[in-house]
């Protein structure tokens, strides 16, 4: 058993009878003293709470849990009552509620069964039998189906190898078997995935995943997303995440439970209780590492009243951003960068060239759609959104040579608002479109710094050079001059550096990465301006593969994560640019998914950002972005667009989006 990493420990000088009396008095009379109840219960560990239940019955002849249920209400009641249950009985009740309620709560089944060790699994099965008089395995069989059911049954056996012995030849064999079962063939041999992921030891599987990545240049997570689907896919991903790091798995679940609309209180309660005496400290560290705020602050912002106070007691302290990492989290941060360096993200588009393409027919159909009274938007959308950009350029040319008309002018006069912006955006060449977006970001009163950053950070050198040429041709001045007249200070210098389109290309140079990482780590102790200039000289010039290695080694030299440093030590546009570079280096589709999320989340939609990303990424990596969107935000890009836009504009965006996930 590892080191104790919980936040709730046994109270010293514990007197169960005195506690029972305190609780009895807190519930006596009219109204109850909720603070006294929650403070007492969260300052005892679970074993002590069981003794208090016994003492309460001995002293007062009453059932403490029944009294608490009677006195308390809502989420607070659920939280306090759940804290009083022994861990195995708490797990059993959660599983029972998940399968016996209206519809099955697959999320709960996945979270609990993917994360428990053998001992916890056996105790839960026994507690379930005791509490409900039925067999947990049989109930799961009745309520689930397919491969999802089979994997749940395998996990319920609690027979994962925990010996710690690793056989190198079996590691290689398993990695090859997983490859053969999935990526190598049409169709998937799910049974292989179930057998290997359900039985092998955690240490063994970590080595298998590394080996798998060497063979396929894909992470096992990406393969699972490609090969499996539905609840089975979600369960297998959860198992993989738990193999990599249980605390990180729970950090993700907690983040998802509080992010977005409404809070998934049952998930929040379940995790805070079940991990409070196991690994809550590690979960807090992982949370801080992965998200932009501490778990403590997220709970504080997302809940209220006695419920909040109880959860914060279970969470323990607030991890101020300044802190160094615990060893566990530093290792995870290091490993995250290492995985990011090993993974070849498969970039997949959503828009591909149309088969049997006939530019003359398309040109004539477009003319017909715009001729006479009224406009046939559907006809325009169906052609423009379902052709590749190269095909659209042929249509533009053919329209002119066949009809002597300028397609862009005709479209502008027939369409309006967001639909017009979107269709025109699709008709421009990528370089013209980027140039126009840069121009729009700097036009008028305010500057859209986020747009400038996003474009310059995510474009390749070739794309930046083409954009520069297109800008000069369209607006008769250089993009660099425009940036210099519109921005100032270090932010301006960073953008000027990026707009050169001269970032190094090619793989990491290990020795130099070490030196770069040391320089960045040393710069963290320098004057603020010197530090930023040093960051600029490395972050704006080195290749992405090289920076991955630099950021990985940075953890080793500083015991901090580069993202934390940027957020803590910098501010404003400079911070946002460096942060965007780090996120792009880590996982560019994920960074763009986050930009899409921010464009639609909250009040009002940033349509310009939505159009910019949907148009510019549709033939590069929009499919990959969509998958990342779903993974991080637990809702599909399709649903988000559907709920946030309307009419023909929405219809066109959904065609570009390409699917529902």
SSE map:
Elements: H1 16-27, H2 34-42, H3 46-60, H4 64-71, H5 74-84, H6 87-100, H7 106-115, H8 118-132, H9 136-143, H10 146-156, H11 168-181, H12 190-199, H13 202-216, H14 220-227, H15 230-244, H16 246-258, H17 265-275, H18 280-290, H19 295-302, H20 305-315, H21 327-342, H22 359-370, H23 377-384, H24 389-403, H25 407-414, H26 417-427, H27 430-442, H28 449-458, H29 461-475, H30 479-486, H31 489-499, H32 510-523, H33 528-539, H34 544-558, H35 562-569, H36 572-600, H37 607-617, H38 622-633, H39 637-644, H40 647-657
Helix pairs in contact: 1-2, 1-3, 2-20, 4-5, 5-17, 5-20, 6-7, 6-8, 7-15, 10-12, 10-15, 11-12, 11-13, 14-15, 15-16, 16-17, 16-18, 16-19, 18-21, 19-20, 21-34, 22-23, 22-24, 25-26, 26-37, 26-40, 27-28, 27-29, 27-30, 28-36, 30-31, 32-33, 32-34, 33-36, 34-36, 35-36, 36-37, 36-38, 39-40
Structure report:
It is found in: Cytoplasm; Melanosome. Belongs to the annexin family. InterPro entries: Annexin (IPR001464), Annexin_repeat (IPR018502), Annexin_repeat_CS (IPR018252), Annexin_sf (IPR037104), ANX6 (IPR002393). This is Annexin. GO terms for molecular function: calcium ion binding; calcium-dependent phospholipid binding; phosphatidylserine binding. There is one protein chain. With 661 residues, the chain is mostly helical. It has 7 domains: 57 residues, Orthogonal Bundle (Annexin V, domain 1); 71 residues, Annexin (Annexin V, domain 1, Orthogonal Bundle), CATH 1.10.220; 77 residues, Annexin V, domain 1 (Orthogonal Bundle); 76 residues, Annexin (Annexin V, domain 1, Orthogonal Bundle), CATH 1.10.220; 69 residues, Annexin (Annexin V, domain 1); 71 residues, Annexin V, domain 1; 70 residues, Annexin V, domain 1 (Orthogonal Bundle). It is 72% helix and 0% strand. The chain is built from 40 helices and no strands. Helix 6 crosses helix 8 and helix 28 packs across helix 36. The radius of gyration is 28 Å and the shape is globular.
């Amino acid at each position: 058993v590892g080191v104790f990493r919980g936040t709730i420990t046994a109270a010293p000088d514990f007197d169960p009878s005195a506690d029972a009396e305190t609780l009895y008095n807190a519930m006596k009379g009219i109204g109850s003293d909720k603070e006294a109840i929650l403070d007492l219960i969260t300052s005892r560990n679970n074993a002590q709470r069981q003794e208090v239940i016994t003492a309460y019955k001995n002293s007062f002849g009453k059932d403490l849990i029944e009294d608490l249920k009677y006195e308390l209400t809502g989420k607070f009641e659920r939280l306090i009552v759940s804290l009083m249950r022994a861990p195995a009985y708490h797990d059993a009740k959660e599983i029972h509620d998940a399968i016996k309620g209206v519809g099955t709560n697959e999320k709960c089944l996945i979270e609990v069964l993917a994360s428990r060790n053998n001992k916890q699994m056996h105790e839960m099965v026994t507690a379930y039998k005791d509490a409900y008089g039925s067999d947990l395995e049989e109930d799961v069989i009745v309520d689930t189906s397919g491969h999802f059911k089979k994997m749940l049954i395998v996990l319920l056996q609690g027979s994962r190898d925990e010996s710690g012995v690793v056989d190198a030849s079996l590691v290689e064999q398993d990695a090859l078997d997983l490859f053969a079962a999935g990526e190598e063939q049409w169709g998937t041999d799910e049974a292989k995935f179930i057998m290997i992921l359900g039985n092998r030891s955690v240490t063994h599987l970590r080595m298998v995943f590394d080996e798998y990545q060497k063979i396929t240049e894909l992470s096992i997570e990406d393969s699972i997303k490609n090969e499996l689907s539905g609840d089975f896919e979600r369960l297998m991903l959860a198992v993989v995440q738990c193999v990599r790091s249980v605390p990180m798995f729970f950090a993700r679940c907690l983040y998802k439970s509080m992010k977005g609309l409404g809070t998934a209180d049952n998930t929040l309660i379940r995790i805070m209780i079940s991990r409070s005496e196991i690994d809550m400290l590690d979960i807090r560290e992982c949370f801080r590492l992965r998200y932009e705020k501490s778990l403590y602050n997220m709970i504080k912002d997302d809940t209220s009243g006695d419920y909040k106070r109880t959860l914060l007691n279970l969470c323990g302290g607030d991890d101020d951003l300044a802190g160094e990492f615990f060893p566990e989290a530093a290792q995870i941060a290091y490993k995250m960068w290492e995985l990011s360096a090993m993974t070849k993200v498969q970039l997949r588009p959503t828009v591909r060239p149309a088969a049997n393409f006939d530019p003359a027919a398309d040109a004539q159909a477009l003319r017909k759609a715009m001729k006479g009274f009224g406009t046939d938007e559907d006809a325009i959308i169906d052609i423009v959104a379902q052709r590749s950009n190269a095909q659209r350029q042929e249509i533009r040319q053919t329209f002119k040579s066949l009809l002597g008309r300028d397609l862009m002018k005709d479209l502008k006069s027939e369409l309006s608002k967001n639909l017009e912006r979107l269709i025109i955006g699709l008709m421009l060449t990528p370089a013209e479109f980027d140039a126009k977006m840069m121009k729009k970001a700097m036009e008028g009163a305010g500057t859209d710094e986020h747009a400038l950053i996003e474009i310059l950070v995510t474009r390749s050198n070739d794309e930046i050079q083409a954009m520069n040429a297109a800008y000069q041709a369209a607006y008769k001045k250089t993009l660099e001059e425009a940036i210099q007249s519109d921005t100032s200070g270090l932010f301006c210098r960073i953008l000027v550096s990026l707009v050169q389109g001269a970032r190094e290309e090619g793989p990491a140079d290990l020795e130099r990465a070490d030196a770069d990482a040391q320089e960045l780590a040393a710069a963290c102790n320098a004057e603020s301006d010197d530090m930023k200039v040093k960051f600029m000289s490395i972050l704006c010039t080195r290749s992405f593969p090289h920076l991955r290695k630099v950021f990985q080694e940075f953890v080793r030299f500083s015991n901090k994560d580069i993202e934390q440093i940027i957020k803590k030590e910098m501010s404003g546009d400079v911070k946002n640019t460096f942060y965007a570079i780090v996120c792009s280096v880590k996982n560019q589709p994920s960074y763009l998914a986050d930009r899409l999320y921010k464009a639609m989340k909250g009040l009002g939609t940033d349509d310009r950002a939505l159009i910019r990303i949907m148009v510019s990424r549709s033939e590069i990596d929009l499919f990959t972005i969509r998958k990342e969107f779903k993974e991080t935000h637990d809702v599909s890009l399709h649903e988000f667009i559907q709920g946030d836009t309307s009419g023909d504009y929405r219809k066109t965006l959904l065609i570009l989006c390409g699917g529902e996930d």
